[in-house]
Amino acid sequence: MTPPNLWEQLQLLIISGGAGAVFRTLISPEKQWKRRVVQGVAGAISALFLGGVLASVIDSITHAGAYAYLAAGFIMGSGGELAVKAIQDRFLGPKDGDN
Questions:
Q1: What whole-number distance in Å separates Cα of residue 35 and Cα of residue 65?
Q2: 71 and 16 in contact (C-beta within 8 Å)?
Q3: From CA 43, how far away is CA 66, in angstroms rounded?
Q4: How many domains does the chain fold into?
Q5: 82, 20 in Cβ contact below 8 A?
Q6: Whole-angstrom Cα distance, residue 49 to residue 88?
Q7: Fewer beta carbons within 10 angstroms: which end of the chain, N or C?
Q8: How many CA atoms lie within 13 A of 8 on its CB side?
Q9: Could you tell me the pTM of the whole model?
């Protein structure tokens, strides 16, 4: 499978990164929607910027093409959301209802 071109890569990362961030945001124990939205947006942005790096690594190993970009976007979207939650909890303190 041939790797997608740059525009296709960005589209795949946006879609899958957004899906990963939304998935993680929906299952989050965070009670405040404002914090959830910030976490979700940060997750989607991390998928866009860091997902390409991870996708290139996955694609070079597996030659999966577009699937590598979808997987990397989802992983970075959900991971980026979790990282922002950890930063918020560290600097702002966990909110009621957080684990």
A1: 34
A2: yes
A3: 20
A4: 1
A5: no
A6: 21
A7: C
A8: 9
A9: 0.74
The answer to whether residue 96 scores a pLDDT higher than 60 is no
The tokens of 84 are what?
Answer: 């922002």
Residue range 9-43, pLDDT digits in tens: 888 888 898 888 888 777 777 777 787 788 778 88
pLDDT attached to residue 62: 93
The whole domain housing 65 covers 15-92
Does 55 map to a domain? Answer: yes
Nearest to 51 by CA among 32, 73, 36, 35: 73
Please check whether residue 9 lies inside any domain of the structure.
Answer: no
> Could you tell me which residues come within 8 angstroms of residue 62 by beta carbon, excluding any fewer than 6 positions away?
68
Answer yes or no: is 4 within a domain.
Answer: no
